[in-house]
Design goal:
This protein is an alpha/beta fold. The chain is built from seven helices and six strands. The structure holds farnesyl diphosphate.
Length: 225
Amino acid sequence: MNRAKHIAIVMDGNGRWAELQGKKRVKGHEAGAKVVKKITTYCVNHEDIERLTLYAFSTENWKRPRLEVEFLMKLLEKYLKNELPSYLEHNIRFEPIGDIRAFSKSLQKTIKDVKEKTAHCDGLVQSLALNYGAHDEILRAINKIKTSSDNITEAMLSNALDCKHNVDLLIRTGGDHRLSNFLLWQSAYAELFFCDTLWPDFDTKDLEQIIKKFTKIERRFGGLK
Ligand code: FPP
């Protein structure tokens, strides 16, 4: 049976969830943050899962209205500050991916602080993709290694990426069937699951069901059985 060692999630549908209830879009992000915590706790307690990577803010999300972007920044900072004791209590290592240099000094400091303070934790690795885009990640990696006169190998590029781990199971909530520039290199052989549930309604039971289906898939990685 397959083990879902690395799960990656595109947490889509916050805005629609809020609008359906006559609320402002940002209320959906607030509700979405609670689900981040719930799903992370579920993964902590699942023996197969080693790594959970969540798409929290993409390189394209800057195109959103300024107030929504500002709200997301504040929410992230509040979340990380509040959750630090819980990361430590549950032995969660926080490993952000993405180019955080575009964020405010204060948010950058909070991100680095939580990363450093949880660096010794050896339980679940929770990665938040922050100002992340796979194209940007790949370009930054190539620029890091291009000074070498040797040809670039797969291992060299993989090691230079923010996320060096192949994805086993990639989930997108919210009904759309696309990857939106998320972990394109690492998902080469990921199993893809798309569900209609909007992220704030996504529950541990939904994840449990997806993992159950995933464990039964025959993964051949381009070979034969
Ligand atoms: C997509 O929903 C979601 C985002 C762009 C941001 C994800 C943020 C969260 C889940 C909450 C904050 C996270 C943390 C870690 C505190 P959308 O706004 O695109 O929804 P829509 O497709 O319905 O418009």
